[in-house]
Amino acid sequence: MRNLSAGRYMAVLLGAVALIFIAAYLSLTNGAFDITVGDIVRTLLRINPQPEHDLVIFDFRLPRIVIAALVGLGLGVAGAAIQGVTRNGLADPGVLGINAGAGAAVVIFMFFFSGQIKGAGWFSTMAMPLFGWAGGLSTAAFLYLFAWKDGKLDPQRVLLVGIATASGLGALSMYISLKMNPSDFEMATVWMTGSIYNANWKFIVAMLPWLVVLIPVIVRRSYTLDLLQLEENSVRSLGVAVEKERMILLLGSIGLVSACVSVSGGIGFVGLMAPHIARRLVGIRHVRMVPVCGLIGMALVVVSDFIAKTVFSPAELPVGIVISIIGVPYFVYLLFKARA
């Protein structure tokens, strides 16, 4: 039975990786300027490289694919941790307002540093995740303040407060964006819907340290996430510092979400869907579920970004809209299932 379970786990991992590579291959070769596999191989190996191929691959398509994968990874892992901490299957960085908090902070940053974002200078690129983290952290503090009941987080209050907070911060972001000049407003509006069309290598450098540091922190606490699904008194009797572990996991999740939001805008539902899909595939043990959540998140965003840029070509949809088209029906399904 153990071997069968391990075999299923490896099959799921390999299947997710294969799906990511297929989507990346399609995204790399298809578009307004089609490129053959041979051209890609020669360009990557620097065999008689062509300037137009270098421009399309290294400046446009490859950074976009990498950012889509990293954003999906971060949101998937953060979603698994947040659902584990709150013990609420409907919890999600977007539903709880953490996306909106990080997004509002970045929009405020855009407003006060108008004109510096479009040039993607190093200062603005590296500062945006920090502003996003501050916004996400403020939102989390607000959640704790209003969802705390009888010495613990009330899962139903967390969800209700999160939805209200997300709505309010979304309105604040829209109000601030309306105060921007027309060019910055257009960019902020597209960004708020969730888009990675403006991907570049600086954004990757800005978000990568957050993922490299915080994902291992969450993965190492997979066993703690398992224990947090028990009654709180039972967990305390096992010697677990419940509130300390919850705070570490929540702060790590906020950091991941903030780094993702700072480069991709408000992409929702990835952190909601990935844990549910992972549980169905590999079970409830977080040591297996968390890595699978990351891979499923990567696949969701990479595939959705490919759909977003090709279905209505030459026009593009923001990737956040494509994921929402998938995620909203899934969220409604989960709500009905929770009521049953």
UniProtKB/TrEMBL annotation:
Cellular compartments annotated: Cell membrane
UniProt keyword list: Cell membrane, Membrane, Transmembrane, Transmembrane helix, Transport
GO molecular function, one term: transmembrane transporter activity
InterPro entries to which the protein is assigned, alphabetical: ABC_BtuC-like, ABC_transptr_permease_BtuC
Gene3D superfamilies: ABC transporter involved in vitamin B12 uptake, BtuC (1.10.3470.10)
Topological type in the membrane: Multi-pass membrane protein
Transmembrane domains' residue ranges: 6-26, 65-82, 94-114, 126-146, 158-178, 199-219, 247-274, 286-307, 319-336
CDD domains: TM_ABC_iron-siderophores_like
UniProt entry tagged with the keyword Cell membrane: yes
GO biological process: siderophore-iron import into cell
GO CC entries: plasma membrane
PANTHER family xrefs: FERRIC ENTEROBACTIN TRANSPORT SYSTEM PERMEASE PROTEIN, IRON-UPTAKE SYSTEM PERMEASE PROTEIN FEUC
Family statement: Belongs to the binding-protein-dependent transport system permease family. FecCD subfamily.
UniProt-recorded name of the protein: Iron complex transport system permease protein
